[in-house]
Amino acid sequence: MKTMLKLLLFVAVSEIAASSPNILYILGDDQAWTDFGFMGNERVHTPHLDALAKKSAVFVNGYVPTSVCRPSLASLLTGLYPHQHGIHFNHGPPGNAGYNRMKSRQEYKEVREKEFVLIQKVETLPRLLAKRGYRSLQTGKFWEGHWRNAGFTEGMTMFKPPPENQHFGGVRRLANGERVAHGNGDFGLQIGRVTMEPIYSFIEDCEKEETPWFVWYAPYLPHLPHDAPEKYFKLAESRPNVAPHEVPYFASIAQFDDTVGEMMRFLEKKKLVENTIIVFASDNGWSPSRQRRGNEFAQTKNSKRSPFDLGLRTPILLHWEGHMQPGQYTELVSTIDLMPTILTATKTESTTKLPGINLLHFANPPSTLFDNRTLFGEIYPGDATSLGHPERNIAYRWVRHRDWKLIVPHSQNPKKAPWGGYLKSVALYDLKNDPMETTNLADLEPHEERVKTLRILLDEWWNPVK
User: Fold this and answer.
1) d(CA 380, CA 384)
2) Which residues pair with 101 in a beta bridge?
3) Strand 22-28 to strand 213-218: parallel, antiparallel, or no bridges (unpaired)?
4) CA–CA dist 39, 60 (Å, integer)
């Protein structure tokens, strides 16, 4: 009897798998919404992303809920806002400098494992897909320790120090000189910069077994260090009107774009494009300044980590042949929407009430669900003072409704300015006429009611100071 039940279960899972689309997440790391050819920037070299965009639904007003990598990536994995999944920081207590002061690998491991419990406690996309017969592969940026913590069936990041010759991230040294995993991806950061082979081998193996697959491709690109091979620097220098401080960043963008082209050629050669949902987004924005930090150009104040659109906005691409109508869409969408979209596409159920909207509604005919859409988000310091208490560290909340964006700063110490010093008081921006958020309209009398209305929407979404 038990053997028969196992056989029936195997058959059921096999039938589900045979009718399920594959899923590929392509996630840029530190790339502003302005820096793509298909977004109108003719100075950057992104032909492969541009080609993908031509075949995709392109949401030009896409957003991440927060402007730094770890909480943004956790939102992609869970479909939840940072205050909901609890990973609102890059570094848990005692913070990044506190990690470095630790005197043993065991102490470091024990402290970091307290953070990894957060992703283990929530439903994640790979965990849910596994119930539908999917295999899933983690590569690239991943902050949650070993890939198993998020429910991947396979992966590259193991929370172990990468090889000595890996000079582009993934490692830290403790006070006693021991090398440990930095926490942002260790071995996984080799994807895209060193090799693409783990992805290709994984997909080929899944296809051989006739198993649907999910690939998390989150390369450390175009993230610092901007150390692309020389050919990409020459390419960036040859583009029109590129300033010297932009060249290293643009070179890394071109390097990243080439890996996307290589990935697409592989899928096309294997005839896998038709049955694969391809998603693209950046984890957060980044823009180069003219100021140097060591050998690199530092980011601008209003990009990564900030509550402004140069840190928060990203184009979101969705490609699924026969299911998503290609074209540019101006509706407001968020990476929060990707989880419910993929769960719907794969007929996967979640017990969690997700805040996002299923983007498959953009299939014919377009839905009116998005006509009056409001987006929300939250900004925190990189270091958390405690786990499980996001309200203790919130620095800014933001809301966008139509062309208007309100930012509300928070300070835990009334004698100090909000973290980061981005704003001291509430700010209102007209993004249609002021996309770079240079003119604060909040204190002008004609906008008094608008500020009140947006503040009510924001507080109804989440109010950390009740």
Assistant:
1) 8
2) none
3) parallel
4) 7
Distance CA 346, CA 212 (A): 10
The candidate with the shortest Cα–Cα distance to 405, out of 15, 61, 10, is: 61
Largest CA distance in the chain: 76
290 and 424 housed in the same domain: no
How many structural domains is the chain composed of? 2
Measured between alpha carbons, how far is residue 353 from residues 254, 339, 348, 429 in Å? 39, 11, 13, 31
Q: Is the pTM of this model over 0.90?
A: yes
d(CA 332, CA 286): 20
Cite the beta strand spans of 47-200 per DSSP E. 57-63, 135-140, 154-155, 171-173, 179-181
Report if residue 314 sits inside a domain. Answer: yes
CA torsion angle for 297, 302, 304, 310 (degrees, to 10)?
Answer: -110
Q: Is the pLDDT of residue 11 over 90?
A: no
Q: Which of 305, 330, 356 is the last residue before a domain boundary?
A: 356
Q: Do 314 and 202 share a domain, yes or no?
A: yes
Summarize pLDDT for 274-294 with one digit per residue, the tens: 999 999 999 999 999 999 999
Q: Cα separation of 411 and 13, whole Å? A: 51
